[in-house]
Amino acid sequence: VQLVESGGGMVQPGGSLRLSCAASGFLFSTWDMKWVRQAPGKGPEWVSTIHTGGSNTYYADSVKGRFTISRDNAKNMLYLQMNSLKPEDTALYYCARAVANGPRGQGTQVTVSS
Length: 114
Hints:
By secondary structure, the chain is an all-beta fold. The protein is 0% helix and 49% strand. The model has no long low-confidence stretch (mean pLDDT 96).
């Protein structure tokens, strides 16, 4: 299993970023997927989950209405569109299969600061 995130960076409050996760080594289309973030000094926080077909999505209250998770099963790609970013969204974001203690990527850093 390999998961490689990209798309992070530094952005001002109110800005947008689109994270990508390239998946390989497993049958991507058959797995629910999730994004998780971890801020400095804090534990992991679940952000969003998407079911295999992409039609069922779930969000943490802290990001609902601002973030959109999506996937392209033909390309083995997972995405997270993040709009109206806030300083409290600053964290290392990583993708994973939607199971407990499963493998994860190395993450991509998102920093929201003026």
